[in-house]
Amino acid sequence: MGCVHVPTDKNPRAAPVSVPERLPLLQTFIPVADRVAGMRSVVITTSRSRPVRADVLESELADDWRVETHEVDAAGLENASPAELAAAVDGHDALVLRPGTVTRDVFERAPSLRALAVYGSGYDRVDLAAATDHDVVVTHSPGAPGPAVVEYTLAAMTALLRDFLGIHERTTGGEWQAAKSMGRELGRTTVGVVGLGTIGLDVARKVDAFGADVLGYDPYVTGDRSDSAIYPRTDRATVEAAGVDLVEFDALLERADVVSLHAPLTDVTRGMIGADELAALSGDYLLNVARGGIVDEDALADAVAEDRLGGVVLDVLEAEPPTADDPLLTSPEVLVTPHVAGVTDGYLERGARLAAEKIETILDGGRPDTVVNPAVFDEQV
């Protein structure tokens, strides 16, 4: 059984806390910078399936951080209970979250926590209201996976429009028929981008460079600056300069040949692509590289089974991993990948650097960009 070193009043360096062996062996837990007098410390959650660059995080931390890395073979915080996660975090100033879920119970059990940096863009696994109630600033780094997700999205659009899956199946099945492989050019389509944060806006720019007509929908982009405290750099002028025609959601679904989802998962966006929206996409293409809960997967499975869509790419699903009998896994019209759009060497390094920068800003009393619970600053007044 492995141990993590959690500080106590009597011994701030090393009070071993057992980690149950029932947790998956493939997952690892790394606390960086054991807390000592006058020094600050951060805990990182990681797993082999969702790694981090702990070495980069360590090198980016200021001199007033005590840096030690401990790997616990039997540990795993991705599926840890709130008590187990809180035991690992308590006594530390900050948490870098890659895998794992942070509930209200974790915040209540870890009163020392002041900063939480999501390693990447998705923050739906954090109870933001609880974080605010406990004066914990939560930030994310949509710019970290951005280049990787944009590249994936462009490749996925091309794969759909050129029917790579169908061509591969026919060719390996003995057919060598170019006449059956007529594709569509990206530059001759209308692409609808839902969510114009860092990633969505860059997708729009790249698609515009191909010559496509670009439609965009984001309810937070309404005036000279964004109404969103989460994406403060996305304003109307920036969106229009990217070649995006801002339209209402229904108009985007009606006019677009390809719809690419890049919105965060919130109470507002959950299920925003349902049966009615899929009906509006008849014959068109859908990509979801954001979060699985944005799409009603039962409605999507029905639309695919009835051959009502041109093709689908899903890098995310509501349940990850999905069940073996998930109909979306067996359809030749659906390309499914295991949440890898942002998983590249560049992402891991950018994520580490940005997480370190944001944590230091918070613990130095500053306010980083892309704070996802801005109300915490009102609470601290």
From TrEMBL:
Pfam families: 2-Hacid_dh (PF00389), 2-Hacid_dh_C (PF02826). Signal peptide: none annotated. Keywords: NAD, Oxidoreductase. Residues 66-373 form the D-isomer specific 2-hydroxyacid dehydrogenase catalytic domain. The keyword Oxidoreductase applies. The keyword Oxidoreductase applies. It comes from the Archaea. GO terms for molecular function: NAD binding; oxidoreductase activity, acting on the CH-OH group of donors, NAD or NADP as acceptor. Residues 154-341 form the D-isomer specific 2-hydroxyacid dehydrogenase NAD-binding domain. Belongs to the D-isomer specific 2-hydroxyacid dehydrogenase family. This is Hydroxyacid dehydrogenase.
